[in-house]
Amino acid sequence: DAGQRQLGAQHCGSCGMLYSPGIPEDRLQHLRHHRRLREGLSYPGWKQERVVAEFWDGKIVLILPGDPNYARRKAQAVLAQVDSELGFPSSPRCPEPSHIYLFVCPGKGVLGCLAAQPIQQ
Question: What sign for the dihedral angle of Cα 58, 64, 66, 71?
Fold first, then answer.
């Protein structure tokens, strides 16, 4: 290793990515991954938000189909991030009758997401 401290693969504690910090391409890919997670899961807060429940570590915000565009866009961005992380093909938009619940922690952004749809059968 010739005295190099950052040789070999390392596991990032905050995002979970396995990368090699000694390789510039890996380091750049890791920074892009971090930026994508930060931007997709950030939550600045809204003046007119529908808070369902509040806890000591965060709150649950409900987004309905009739909500303003900024709320629906945030729900779609979070769902796209979740689909990407789980390996599902991303859908172009969330289904109309779905209710999106976001668990939001101040300073950390969106920590959880639930998409609920009414079903007939």
Answer: positive
